[in-house]
């Protein structure tokens, strides 16, 4: 990777980290397409490492507002969802699977705009975790289902709870990558080199967070979720 390419990725990571630190998700959605263009060999390892790092920072910052029970129930759904996602990837045409998953997210966004606001109760959170596991495994974008179910939460609660969920989910992903030999030393080295850019984005998010009241946070979450669904369609 040349110096110019590294600079492009670093700026992208700063913006992506600022996004995730502000609304609770979005680093992979924002950064993965750019990294794929610059150096696809860094995927998915670098995004998983950086996503875990920013989620940890946000979780520490918002620790007083984390719904640990909710994050735990989301993981109950995430584990089988990951297995289902892997099975679907192995058996279904990639384009058809991407379109189906994107359509489900866009339908959820549409219903939310129309006034549907699911209560983050046990069944809904487990179902969102299941959908997140399927979508995250099949497309590497697993945040939208969780954002839809937690869209009515306060900013600190949404950011903290989603971060706790992502930390746990990322551990599974890192273990899986290591198990299949898909996490190279070079990927880890570059991810570590990008940590200052990540921290900068996290720090700069303090300029955005005060502006995000409940309505603006919900609007941002729905907009990013819709963008993720569109990206799945385009990438697929």
UniProtKB/TrEMBL annotation:
<feature type="transmembrane region" description="Helical">
    <location>
        <begin position="96"/>
        <end position="116"/>
    </location>
</feature>
<keyword id="KW-0813">Transport</keyword>
<feature type="transmembrane region" description="Helical">
    <location>
        <begin position="123"/>
        <end position="142"/>
    </location>
</feature>
<keyword id="KW-1003">Cell membrane</keyword>
<feature type="transmembrane region" description="Helical">
    <location>
        <begin position="41"/>
        <end position="60"/>
    </location>
</feature>
<protein>
    <recommendedName>
        <fullName>Probable membrane transporter protein</fullName>
    </recommendedName>
</protein>
<comment type="similarity">
    <text>Belongs to the 4-toluene sulfonate uptake permease (TSUP) (TC 2.A.102) family.</text>
</comment>
<keyword id="KW-0812">Transmembrane</keyword>
<dbReference type="InterPro" id="IPR052017">
    <property type="entry name" value="TSUP"/>
</dbReference>
<feature type="transmembrane region" description="Helical">
    <location>
        <begin position="72"/>
        <end position="90"/>
    </location>
</feature>
<feature type="transmembrane region" description="Helical">
    <location>
        <begin position="217"/>
        <end position="235"/>
    </location>
</feature>
<keyword id="KW-0472">Membrane</keyword>
<feature type="transmembrane region" description="Helical">
    <location>
        <begin position="162"/>
        <end position="180"/>
    </location>
</feature>
<feature type="transmembrane region" description="Helical">
    <location>
        <begin position="187"/>
        <end position="205"/>
    </location>
</feature>
<dbReference type="GO" id="GO:0005886">
    <property type="term" value="C:plasma membrane"/>
</dbReference>
<keyword id="KW-1133">Transmembrane helix</keyword>
<dbReference type="InterPro" id="IPR002781">
    <property type="entry name" value="TM_pro_TauE-like"/>
</dbReference>
<dbReference type="Pfam" id="PF01925">
    <property type="entry name" value="TauE"/>
</dbReference>
